[in-house]
Amino acid sequence: MPVSVLTGAGISTDSGIPDFRGPQGVWTKNPQAEASATIERYLADPEVRRDTWRARLDHPVWNARPNAAHRALADLERAGLLRALITQNIDELHQRAGSSPEKVIELHGTVHRVECLSCDLITPMPEVLTRVAAGEADPPCPRCGGIQKANTISFGQNLKPEVLDAAVRAACSCEVFVAVGTSLTVHPAAGLCGQALDSGARLVIVNAEPTPYDRFADQVVNEPIGRALPALVQELIDAAR
User: Fold this and answer.
1) Which of 5, 66, 163, 208 sits CB 3.0–4.6 Å from 97 for a disulfide?
2) Residues 99-145: pLDDT tens digits?
3) What does the alpha-carbon distance between residue 49 and residue 40 come to, in Å, rounded to a whole number?
4) What are the start-end ranges of the E strands in the chain?
5) What is the predicted pLDDT for the residue at 185?
6) 94, 108, 112, 187: which is the annotated catalytic residue?
7) Is 108 a catalytic residue?
8) Backbone angles phi, psi at 82, to 5 degrees
9) Is residue 205 a contact partner of residue 194, using CB atoms and an 8 Å limit?
10) HSE on the CB side for 102, CA within 13 Å?
11) Closest CA to 25 of 9, 2, 3
């Protein structure tokens, strides 16, 4: 019974990383922050870049630890049931919980690396944050002097085609598709649910708030993810025995 999983920000809130669109979400509390999270604003406005780098220094991701939900998905893999783990998150907590990197499809990249938007140089995030802490408010690329940003997908940037293709293949080749901690309002990630359904998979949604796909799901769980997902994973493992 191959299972593909899509995770969003809600799976990491128990690790101390706030989500975006929940009742206490970053963008719920500050809609302007969402407006600033576009590649156009980042490129055009040095102050947006300076604010972004300052915020990176104290981001909760650096002290975050995997929680029970992350560990449950690693258990699902160890049971031999995980087809792929597609994530909208940039925190790498799935890998730290024990999920194999080759199973994790990072739709929106990772905050643990930095890319140059001119020459594509990839640099570990700690190296760049050391420069920020030392006084470089908007550190340029050390190779070409270009603008750098976290190796993540901002609004206005396309997902990498090979990453999206891998996610689509995973959605279309599973028997159960589980969406966890995601509002299912951001495309193309949300559309993976429809592609899984069209391919005959059962859809299970675990999320604190209603989603547009609830009416198509075989099962909707609106309980806390840290408790609900380990129970669901155990059910899947037991059913496969």
Assistant:
1) 66
2) 999 999 999 999 999 999 999 999 999 999 999 999 999 999 999 99
3) 11
4) 3-7, 82-87, 104-106, 109-116, 122-124, 148-152, 176-180, 202-206, 219-221
5) 92
6) 108
7) yes
8) -85, 115
9) no
10) 0
11) 9
